[in-house]
Specification:
The radius of gyration is 23 Å and the shape is globular. The protein starts with a helix and ends with a helix. The strands form 2 sheets. The chain has a 6-stranded parallel β-sheet. A 3-stranded parallel β-sheet has the order 7-8-9, with helices on one face. It contains 17 helices and 9 strands. Helix 8 packs parallel to helix 14, helix 9 runs antiparallel to helix 10 and helix 15 runs antiparallel to helix 16. It is of the alpha/beta class and about 425 residues long.
């Protein structure tokens, strides 16, 4: 963070130039908050001088991670933050709190939800208006997310809670979907999936903003964000950094295809329902190959809700339904999580994410079996599958085919191996 002051000075320059354009200046003031992470009083003064709108303090729910990250115990970190909190109050600057390693730690492994709640409560007592709960190494699953949030919500109001999910194991969107169902409405993300953690070996960046916004819009949640312009911003900064975007939504040419209108969705689903009722199907596999080749409006959990509403339970017994999700836009695990909540227990997948569709330009392979099994095991669902051997099988066939596995779980395991 040595260049933090220089960054904020550039932000101030931008603000000054924006003042020449009344519309741009108004928009910036209304919609953009420039927030600085500050570890101590010195950091606060630098942020304040640079004109920050908000300061943030960052603790950990893991003792081991706290020592590695900021070289002190959790209790010592809270004591350090107290001075920052007092300065923020004195200068009328909003204070935000971050809790890292809420779903797992690279050094101590399991982190108790009770520990997460305890640290969250301490940050709240310091005056934080919002507590952001971070899955720093991206190992969490939907059930772990819910269990953690239940503990935190007992001491912090849900409107003062945010989730901050890294996507190392491909679980971020499914975890966010679970958090939404718990009433959490603030989601941290980063454009193009930038970021990471130097103290968490193998951790990927935060979940891509483009993928989160795509899912939220698909669920009928208004964000006020122009997805096309967000994709442009992500592609721009990725180009500057000389790296590929980590956003699946931004990576596919299908992102430019127009979405179907709601009326067409309803008509298509009704027509499909009538056709299905004429035949004695014993097993229906509902394929989601690409975003706009299905009668569903969007491939987000909202689409699964429509599925159940129109024909899921009314025409076919849930035990005779399977879901078959391709992961072109990164939504597959969130969709599967939604399907599980609808009572669907059969999931199609492919090892290493193999497959695709020659008639759907840009469509990726089916969701990786490794990522699905990891999520299911994390939700306490027994599959009878040995995940380690499944990963070995995926790596083997990927090697034979001369390509990288598309499984985030397999890739994360490979990076964390000595």
């Amino acid at each position: 963070m040595a260049d933090a002051k220089a960054v904020m000075e550039r932000v101030q320059d931008w603000r000054t130039r924006s003042n020449h354009n009344a519309a741009a200046s108004s928009s910036a003031k209304q919609n953009v908050t420039f927030s600085c992470l500050v570890p101590n009083a010195k950091g606060f003064h630098g942020a304040f001088e640079a004109g920050t709108d908000e300061v943030a303090i960052f603790g950990s729910a893991s003792e081991a991670f706290s020592q590695k990250n900021i070289n002190c115990s959790i209790k010592e970190s809270i004591d350090r933050f107290r001075q920052v909190a007092d300065l923020a109050t004195a200068h009328n600057i909003p204070l935000r709190g971050y809790v890292s390693c809420v779903l797992g730690c690279p050094y101590q492994g399991h982190v108790s939800p009770c520990d997460v709640a305890r640290v969250s409560e301490q940050l709240l007592e310091l005056g934080c208006h919002e507590i952001s709960l971070g899955d720093t190494i991206g190992v969490g699953t939907p059930l772990a997310t819910v269990m953690m949030l239940e503990q935190v919500k007992a001491v912090v109001e849900k409107d003062n809670i945010a989730v901050h999910m890294h996507d190392t194991f491909g679980q971020a969107l499914a975890n966010i979907h679970a958090a939404l169902l718990e009433g959490i409405s603030t989601i941290d993300s980063s454009v193009a999936g930038l970021g990471g953690c130097p103290y968490a070996d193998g951790a990927s960046g935060n979940v891509a903003s483009e993928d989160v916004v795509y899912m939220l819009h698909g669920m009928g949640i208004e964000t006020g964000i122009d997805l096309d312009r967000l994709i442009d911003a992500g592609n721009f900064i990725s180009g500057v950094l000389g790296r590929e975007t980590r956003s699946k939504v931004a990576s596919t040419p299908l992102a430019t295809v127009m979405m179907l209108e709601q009326v067409k969705v309803r008509c298509s689903l009704y027509s499909f329902k009538q056709k299905m009722s004429r035949f004695p199907y014993t097993y229906i596999s509902l394929r989601i190959i690409r975003t706009f080749s299905s009668p569903l409006k969007r491939f987000a959990p909202f689409g699964i809700d429509l599925l159940g509403l129109y024909f899921g339970q009314a025409v076919v017994e849930k035990d005779n339904i399977a879901v078959h999700m391709h992961d072109t836009f990164g939504q597959a695990l969130a969709n599967i999580h939604a399907a599980l909540l609808e009572g669907i227990s059969t999931i199609d997948s492919s090892v290493a994410g193999l497959g695709g569709c020659p008639y759907a330009d840009g469509a990726s392979g089916n969701v990786a079996s490794e990522d699905v099994v990891y999520m299911l095991h994390g939700m306490g669902i027994e599959t009878g599958i040995d995940l380690d051997r499944l990963i070995d099988a995926g790596n083997f066939i990927s090697g034979v085919l001369g390509r990288e596995t598309r499984s985030k779980v397999a890739s994360a395991m490979k990076k964390s191996s000595p």
